[in-house]
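During the no-cost extension, the postdoctoral fellow (Dr. R.K.) reprocessed legacy sequence entries with the updated structure-token encoder. One reprocessed record is reproduced below for audit purposes.
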Amino acid sequence: MNRTGEIVLTIVGALIYMLFAGVGIFAAWLFNNEQVLNEASDEMMQQPGMGTGDMQAMLEVLQGGGLVLAIVSIIALVLGIISIILVKGDKKPKAAGIILIVTSVLAAIITVGAGIFSGIFYLIAGIMCLARKEQQTITVE
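Re-encoded structure tokens follow.
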């Protein structure tokens, strides 16, 4: 059976996850850079009503969030590639569909909604993998 739609949707989702992985790695690097942290803290200290504790908490959340986004995106990217391999040649489309659906839901939840964009592509591809039935060939004797 031709599964071009599922493969294309999975590739698009994987490319978006790759972009998010790059953004997450960049954010983690950015907030581990001492010079950037000093400039950001100086800028935030000039804001009225912003305390030192608030600023430190916000920077820690951004630093950890970038790392989580990168890790989840890389895992989702690898699972997407595995799903493409399973769908290609119509080997195990049901397993690929389950992997795609679970990956999309978990990535969206873990990244607090950031993974929803690429997760939509994985979710649609996963549903298509599960919904399509193999064509039955009837032989007349």
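The radius of gyration is 21 Å. The chain has five helices and no strands. The remaining legacy entries will be reprocessed before the final report is submitted.
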